[in-house]
Design a protein that fits this description.
Helices cover 20% and strands 32% of the residues. It is of the alpha+beta class. It has one domain: 4-Layer Sandwich (Metallo-beta-lactamase, Chain A). The strands form three sheets. It has a seven-stranded mixed β-sheet with strand order 1-2-3-4-5-8-9. Strands 10-11-12-13-14-15-16 form a seven-stranded mixed β-sheet. Strand 11 and strand 12 form a beta hairpin. The longest helix is centred in the C-terminal third of the chain and has 17 residues. It is globular and about 55 Å long.
Length: 282
């Protein structure tokens, strides 16, 4: 899909399952299950979405899915179905992991940075994108390598530590421009230093939301994940981002929605809703 002079392609690393109650926090199951029917273990199906941006001759990837390092127990817990995998999604665009020049991580949770590294044929963990620089908020990195009892289940050191050892990590602090038209903006709440990726070209803007608003069902203000470490911060961030996205007509990319990958905001009876855009999906 064209965005000004750039091209953007929502890709996927497949699907996985998370507890529906945790995904919707204080929202009762009788409401959210209409949109996301749970399985017998109360898990709902979610996409492992990523975004490919082609700009200035570079191939830029935002988030990398869950990757291939999980054992059978891990795959069973999260009902992982990497069909198609991120590598297969890239192939549809005639790209291999070596063709990726930059990776932007919204944060380092296992379903967003799991694909930063991979298990090779010799059972060694190696960078998935060896030609890329990985752009990560410095304080998110610190949170990931020093987790507490509440957060340690969301971070896996094998997803990212080798990147620093190989000199592939580029730390950013706060709102930062990566390239002309490619920037990261702070969107705290899910984690303290969560960031979203903003793509701008010829007056058009697209925002990869990450876990700020993981699905279109999370558009209403009270729909905030139980996984969010700072839910009231999420609320304030959502209000600011949705207001700007509506006023400036941003294309929003939803990372975990199993059905709607991107769309524009509209108002229905005074509430925000999403008008889906489906052209050019990867």
């Amino acid at each position: 899909m064209k965005l000004g002079k750039f091209e953007i392609y929502p890709l996927t690393d497949g699907f996985f399952g998370l507890d529906g109650g945790a995904m919707f926090g204080v929202v009762p199951r009788v409401i959210w299950e209409k949109h996301h029917p749970p399985d017998t273990k109360n898990r709902i199906r979610l996409a492992l979405g990523t975004l490919l941006v082609r700009a200035h001759g570079y191939n830029i990837l935002v988030d990398t899915g869950i990757g291939n390092k999980g054992d059978s127990k891990f795959q069973d817990i999260y009902a992982i179905d990497r069909t198609p995998s991120l590598e297969e999604s890239l192939l549809k665009h005639n790209l291999t992991p070596r063709d990726i020049n930059m990776v932007i991580n919204t944060h380092l949770h296992l379903d967003h940075a799991g694909g930063d590294t991979r298990m090779d044929d010799h059972n060694h963990i190696v960078p998935t994108f060896p030609s890329a620089k990985y752009y990560i908020q410095r304080q998110e990195w610190e949170s990931a390598i020093h987790p507490n009892e509440r957060t340690k289940g969301s971070y896996r050191l094998e997803d990212f530590m080798i990147l620093q050892e190989r000199g592939l990590v580029h730390f950013v602090e706060g709102n930062s421009q990566i390239l002309e038209g490619i920037s990261v903006i702070e969107t705290p709440g899910h984690t303290r230093h969560h960031q979203s990726a903003l793509v701008e070209s010829e007056g058009q803007k697209a925002l990869f939301l990450g876990d700020l608003i993981p699905t279109t069902t999370h558009i209403p203000y009270p729909y905030i994940m139980g996984y969010d470490l700072f839910p009231l911060t999420t609320l304030e961030t959502k209000k600011k981002i949705l207001a700007r996205a509506y006023e400036e007509h941003w294309l929003l990319v939803f990372q975990h929605d199993p059905n709607v990958r991107m769309g524009y905001l509209k108002q229905v009876k005074g509430q925000f809703a999403v008008e889906e855009v489906s052209e050019g999906l990867g």
